[in-house]
Amino acid sequence: MYILKSSIRNVTRNAGRNILIGMIVLVIAISSCIALSIKQSAKQLEATGLSNIQITGSISVDRQSLMTQAKASGTDVQSLMQENQDLTLAEMQNYATSQYVKDFYYTLSSSVSKGSGLEPVSTSKTTTTANATATTNQITSGQTTSGQTPTDNATKVDVPSGMGTQGDFTITGYSGENAMASFVSGTNQVTSGQVFSFDTADMTCLISEELATMNGLSVGSTIQVINPNATTEVYTLTVAGIYNTTTAATNSDNMRFSTASDPANQIYTSYNTLKAIGGQSISVATVGTDTNGNQTTTALRTQENGTYIFADMTAYENFKTDVTTMGLPTAYTVTSTDVTNYENSLLPLQNLNNFATIFLFLVLLIGGSILVVLNILSMRERKYEIGVLTAIGMKKKNVVIQFITEGFIVTILAILLGTGIGAVASVPITNALLSQQITSLQTKQSTQQSNFGRGGGGGSGQPGQAASVTYIQSISSATDITVVMELIGIGILLTVLSSCGAMVFILRYDPLNILSNRS
Amino acid sequence: MSVLKLENLSYTYHGEQKKVLDELNYDFENGKIYCIMGKSGAGKTTLLSLLSGLTTPTDGKIFFNEQDISHIDKYDYRNRMVGVIFQGYNLLPHLTAEENVQLSMDISGKIFPDKVHHGFKALSKVELGEEKATRRILKLSGGEQQRVAIARALSYDPEIILADEPTGNLDGETQEGIINIFKKLAHEENKCVIIVTHSPEVAKAADVLYELTSVS
């Protein structure tokens, strides 16, 4: 007990020396607190960012794996692709029975061309050059926006076996309300009329306000869309509702290759309606063989997509292994754009995390070295005190404990003060550094875009480009109990480390030598 | 019965051939003042260091209450059994007189019902009042510091008091005061007081006088 009392007394009586040591520890503590807070934020966001939100995922062909497989086995990639087509709805529904799936919905999407009296919304310079003037059974033009040659007759359309011609509109059929994520999130909102029925193929749809205005359409109006592969196929849909979209169709317009990708040109309908259209198209399609011997068809190209909803990240991870046991071939993979986007959004923070690790290491190395030297100097200065204490019978072990306790008191006080300052400073400093990281990343991407002739447009860009990722812009709190505990750990480590030199001195000193030398 | 006994005690400095002390056989008893005199270099301070356990003899033994002190923990021996008054006082300057005294009591590990009161009492024995007792060491005169050193040595009630030139730099009046304290300790409190000194005045107060001669 007296050791603690003596230590406290010595700390207060030798303020100058202890303030000096305290200042060094304070600088270490503030720097470490900020670095650890950055690390903790990154760790927390990485670990918990997805844990509390629903995750959507899908199963798709793992092309990368197929290519590796093809390279290894020497087989043709194309044939491997043919063998591993996208999963059918039945297959997708089978995997949806996994216990980890919270919900499953599916969509059917296709691309259709404009029919009579319907013009797509477009700001692009490479828009449609000819209008379809088809009646139900007669088509005069089926111009596409992808620069393909206009054709007068569907039978003349040279359609590749696997891919269809791009139309003016994207039409998507949904299995249910939850599948319409943009309406669930509020990005899109029905402003007039109401949503179509999901249960029947009633040939009703939702169109955007812009499209409605441009074509003078209202609820109850009919629109005609055409199979871009066979312009004789005209389908009439009734407008059940008109929606307003807040999706930006802004600075990436000049990068868009098709009006079909314009948010205003999205036509929404039920899965059943689009399935019925697809079915009818197949029934009237012309099937042929191209010059390469591949089979061709003029049927409307449709793409089925299944989306699995998971309660959390754990369920998503479990699902990945569960589908393998359920028999999903290795050529398929489970992916989640939520997870990928989230991971990408963390990139600046992760860069900052790496920087913080190096910074922390340097601070501890340099700060620790200074403390060791200061403590050794301090021990030399206190040589007489050590001599007196041991001469009057204080055991060296107790002298060491007393000196270490003094170190702890100074260190802990400085660490607490440093943690307080660091905690306050960490959020604005982290956010400022994060902002610099984001700017740096965006500048790098912008330069890259520019170098490849994609034009300036710093943050916008091509689908699939990292620039389209919304980065985590700021953190709200960084210093938590873990950081405080880590800082206390650092304090203990620094004290023990810096006291090691002191301990050697104390254990080596002989009281008689010290006192007789002084005399 | 002797409280401290030297048996053929010899000492040679490390790395030297010549003995500083050669086969000393002294007996020290409670209730007496012993003075060890001798010229400079005769080994007076060395003998005191040996008696206080700060160094170990090259040959021979020291017995404390018939127990060989080489078998006793030197720190326990110094903080409980002997009270050493060093020539240079060896007080801690950042502490007050009272704190210096109390620190020794703490280190001894002995239990005192009222430690603060006991500390002040030890200081009052050497005629230092509360006002002086609460001053830092460097705010005290040489004589006062010497008294604090004595009070510190007495504070934990050791059987033996060892003093190295306790009146070295003091004026006559102060010297007399210090000698009286030692007399009181030996004759009234039955302590064994061993003083290493050059001073004839101190020697006069001794009950037993040992003369150290340089080993030729």
Mean pLDDT of chain A: 79
Count the helices of chain B. How many? 8
The overall pLDDT average of chain B reads 88
Shape of chain B: globular
CATH class of chain B: Alpha Beta
Structural class of chain A: alpha+beta
Number of domains of chain B: 1
Rg of chain B is 17 Å
The H/E string of chain B reads EEEEHEEHEHHHHEHEHE
Question: Total number of helical segments of chain A?
Answer: 15
Helix/strand structural class of chain B: alpha/beta
The tally of strands of chain A reads: 12
CATH 4th-level superfamily of chain B? P-loop containing nucleotide triphosphate hydrolases
Q: How many angstroms separate the termini of chain A?
A: 32 Å
Question: How many strand segments of chain B?
Answer: 10
The major sheet of chain B is characterized as: 5 strands, antiparallel
Most extensive chain-chain interface: A-B, 24 and 26 residues
pLDDT < 50 stretches of chain B: none
* Tally of distinct domains of chain A: 2
Q: Strand order across the biggest sheet of chain A?
A: 2-3-8-5-7-6
Characteristics:
heterodimer; A: 519 residues; alpha+beta; two-stranded antiparallel ribbon; 15 helices; 12 strands; B: 216 residues; alpha/beta; Rossmann fold; 5-stranded antiparallel beta sheet; 25% strand; globular
Write the layout of secondary structure elements.
The complex is a heterodimer of chains A (519) and B (216).
Chain A: H1 2-13, H2 15-48, E1 55-61, H3 63-73, H4 77-83, H5 89-95, E2 101-114, E3 169-174, H6 181-185, E4 188-193, E5 204-208, H7 209-215, E6 222-227, E7 230-245, E8 266-270, H8 271-284, E9 287-289, E10 295-297, E11 302-310, H9 313-325, E12 332-335, H10 337-345, H11 347-381, H12 383-391, H13 396-451, H14 481-508, H15 511-518
Parallel strand pairs in A: 3-8, 5-7
Antiparallel strand pairs in A: 1-11, 1-12, 2-3, 2-6, 2-11, 4-7, 5-8, 6-7, 9-10
Chain B: E1 2-12, E2 19-24, E3 27-29, E4 33-38, H1 44-51, E5 59-64, E6 67-68, H2 74-81, E7 82-85, H3 97-108, H4 115-125, H5 130-133, H6 142-155, E8 160-164, H7 172-188, E9 192-196, H8 200-205, E10 208-212
Helix pairs in contact in B: 2-3, 3-4, 3-6, 4-6
